[in-house]
Amino acid sequence: MSPTLVRHQLPNTGTGRADGPAAPTAPAGVRARDWAEIQERMLVPLYEAAYDRLGIGPGTRLLGLGCGSGLALLLAAARGAQVSGVDADECRLELARERLTPDGMPEVTRLVSGGLADAAPKDTAFTVITAFHPVGCGGDAEELTGALTSAAALAERGSAVVLGGWGPVERCAATGVLRVAERLTAPAAGFGARWRPAGRDDLEELAARAGLRPDGSGRVACPFGYADLASAVRGMLSTGLFDAALEVAGPRQVEKELAEALHPYQQADGTVWMANVFRYLIARTP
């Protein structure tokens, strides 16, 4: 029962920087660690809600698309699942390897490099596929649809596919902060904004394009909490949703406007807190 991590070209949700706000020129490994240490944990309630609903545990063979630095895989493995992961970012995958193969643990991880087929457990099929990176947050919809279709072919018939996304705009405080990226990128049509407000049926439309059958959905509170304003800036930049804005407007302008947008959410003790709601859709493979 060995977790497998594979490098595969999927829509990338971004990276971060450990010693200050990140620009696209920052070393990829340093940027990836900001994602792992600051931002990724914000989605734990989403991961846990989906796992609870599906009863993830021993006997589950789970494939994480866009698995990032592996926190969602680690939570599934802790429940007894056999996990595999694919991601476009080799730096994030390296952090996932660190998490899934700590010193002193039995050798439970097989690491391979290649395409989706290399992630499949030997002589078996997946029973659950997850795509937690929010729809509408970077990447190409056609590419993600293709990845889901390919992954579904490696799963048992009727297997669950979990798609993650932002909840209603009015229930996501981070929306106002993310609009900084949308606004700063707008003058340069060639770049295109990496973020857009969530549509009511985004997840259902993606499932339909991938030939999946919807089978229930839910909403989960995923507040974004940071130790201070500087950590909040670094965490938000680590998502990759500001990369295009950084290219267009430059790091200094992006960091300034991002800090201003975050300021209303700073508490008296200096921490930053934004209430958000995320959606998930459970779909089934044909």
From TrEMBL:
Region (Disordered): 1-28
Natural source organism: Streptomyces lunalinharesii
Biased composition, class Low complexity, residue ranges: 13-28
Name this protein carries in UniProt: Methyltransferase domain-containing protein
Domain of life: Bacteria
Domain Methyltransferase span(s) in chain numbering: 63-149
Pfam families in UniProt: Methyltransf_25
